[in-house]
Write a structure and sequence with these properties.
single chain; 5 helices
Amino acid sequence: LIITLKNIISIERKLTPFSFNNSKMNNTVENKFDYNTSRDKLILAEYGRNVQNMVEYICELPTKEERNKYAQVVIDMMGFLNPHLRDVPDFKHKLWDHLHIISGFRIDVD
């Protein structure tokens, strides 16, 4: 069995999921990646995108009781992520202010 370089290249092209020579395929590949530049801007970057996504989820919850329960968990997590805020007087109030800022003041909680 003699394998030539030409055979190896043709086999490799068949096995490769993308063809970089095909511009139509390149557009499809580029659209599959999720870059930070294509996402919404972070409102308070110190909490990160996951906290921002959780706050967005809380805003969409149907009942106020659910929103309160989930918001309290997010507040606890925000305090855990930023332990330096515990030295600030009334830090829970500051975290609640940050939660409202992240939500764009759309969150309805007690």
